[in-house]
Amino acid sequence: xxxxxxxxxxxxxxxxxxxxxxxxxxxxxxxxxxxxxxxxxxxxxxxxxxxxxxxxxxxxxxxxxxxxxxxxxxxxxxxxxxxxxxxxxxxxxxxxxxxxxxxxxxxxxxxxxxxxxxxxxxxxxxxxxxxxxxxxxxxxxxxxxxxxxxxxxxxxxxxxxxxxx
Length: 165
Hints:
This protein has 165 residues and is mainly α.
């Protein structure tokens, strides 16, 4: 016994199978496209991350260089027997290296470092003035102690001379 609508049932089954096949192929295509897009995004994120890591490491190096610069500059105050010409040359060389590193990076990434470098000369002049004033203060203190000691000796001699008379 054949159904009266057998032809229609076969056509419906074929339509259903076709639709199902098309939907499965489309689903696989969309999944494949999504995975390829994600892979491209991940590679882009990795490249941006490596760029940011390079910038961060350069910024860290700049901070260390600036700290070393000030440490070298403090050597003037720390010791009197320092070779001033050699030290100044090394300070200028270090400043030029810092400037070169700053110029290689985007301006947005080194704003603080650029600001510090631009204000460094004024800061160093103020530091020099303070250093000179401290040295002058120490010299005056030493002179005062020496004068005070001499004054006491003179007073002591006067008293002993008056006592002996």
